[in-house]
Every structure is written in structure tokens, then in C-alpha cells.
Write a structure and sequence with these properties.
The protein is of the alpha+beta class. The protein contains six helices and five strands; from the N terminus they run H-H-H-H-E-E-H-E-E-H-E. Strand 3 and strand 4 form a beta hairpin.
């Protein structure tokens, strides 16, 4: 059974997307469990009323009658429940609309889907910057988001650091991972150095 190249690339695209984007299944599962519990409670109360047994929490008909003729205590309880439902609704809408991207980047590779954590990209950039600047390991830090990387170098006192050499070294090293990572590199050299 052979697979076409288009089928393989479709599978790889799905794998990359699932690896880069956060799953929303937990929020959906929680919402469905709450909905199922409410439906089960309403069903149980209805059956208990039909057989003439005492209600578990509140008789559905009594709840409807109370809602139609509210007193001060019921209005307060209804307002609290409405507030909780509004907050829950806002949380679910935000979860549905947020992009849900994780700190990972896909890298094209001829043998399959490759995903790199952005912390690895940042550590690679910091290592390249530290080596090019000739500073100790802790004096070069980096952050990476998408295809842009920012490097901060704290020079050793008395030794100048050439920003262009550091930028070129970082671009070259990140370009070895994927040419997209080396495109936007920002280098900041601290004005005050540290003792070696």
C-alpha cells in the first residue's frame, strides 16, 4: 500500500499543527461534563416527582413557580448564578477564540515533521552570541518568538563587543536550523559590563 506525496504532506501538516497549537479538549470536556450533570439532575428530579418521591435538591415545578413569583432571596441566588454563568461563558468564548499557540516552531524536513521548542532556538542563539562575543555562558541570553529572536549580551569589562559580529554569528547559527529563524535577529549590548 503506497501513499501519495500529497497524502503524506497532509498528515505532516496535521501533525505540525497539533504540535504547535494547544488542545482545547479539556475545556470542551469540562463544559460537556457540567452540561451532562445538569441534564442528569433535571431528569432525576423529574422522575422523582413523577413517582411521588421527595426531590434531591429542588422540585422542578417548585423551581419554575418560584422563578415566576420571585422573592428577594431567589433574586439574589439568580443573580449569583447568572454572574457565574456569564464568567463561565466569557472563559469559554476566550478559549474558543484564542489562537492557542504553544512555544514551538515547525521546521521543514524531507523525512517528516520536525518541531523545535522556542527555548531551544533561544539557547542556540545565546550560545552563538556568547561564543562570538567572547563572554562567559551567563552573559548572553536570548528570547525567541516565531521567527524573531532577541539576544542580550553583557560584555566583560574592558572588552568591546561588536554588535554586527554577534548578529551575523546568531543569524548563521539559526539559519542552520531553518532559514526563517535567522531572518529577524535583534542584538542588544549592555552598556555596563561585568567582571570576568
Amino acid at each position: 500500500m503506497s501513499s501519495s506525496p500529497n497524502g503524506a504532506s497532509g498528515v505532516e501538516r496535521r501533525i505540525r499543527r497539533r504540535s504547535v497549537h494547544r488542545s482545547r479538549s479539556t475545556a470542551v470536556s469540562v463544559a460537556l461534563v457540567v452540561l451532562a450533570l445538569v441534564a442528569a439532575w433535571i431528569g432525576t428530579e423529574s422522575v422523582l416527582r413523577a413517582v411521588g418521591a421527595a426531590p434531591l435538591l429542588a422540585d422542578p415545578q417548585t423551581a419554575v413557580d418560584t422563578a415566576l413569583r420571585p422573592d428577594a432571596a431567589f433574586v439574589t441566588i439568580a443573580e449569583v448564578i447568572a454572574g457565574v454563568l456569564v464568567v463561565l461563558g466569557i472563559v469559554l468564548v476566550v478559549l474558543a477564540l484564542k489562537p492557542g499557540r504553544q512555544h514551538r516552531s515547525p521546521v521543514p524536513h524531507e523525512r517528516g515533521a520536525v518541531i523545535i521548542d522556542t527555548r531551544i532556538i533561544a539557547a542556540t542563539a545565546a550560545n552563538a552570541a556568547g561564543t562570538a562575543a567572547g563572554v562567559p555562558d551567563g552573559n548572553a541570553t536570548a528570547t525567541s518568538r516565531g521567527t524573531s529572536t532577541e539576544v542580550r549580551v553583557v560584555p566583560v569589562s574592558g572588552i568591546a563587543v561588536d554588535e554586527g559580529i554577534v548578529r551575523d554569528a546568531v543569524k548563521d547559527r539559526l539559519g542552520q536550523l531553518d532559514e526563517r529563524f535567522g531572518r529577524r535577529v535583534k542584538v542588544r549590548i549592555a552598556e555596563q559590563g561585568t567582571l570576568s
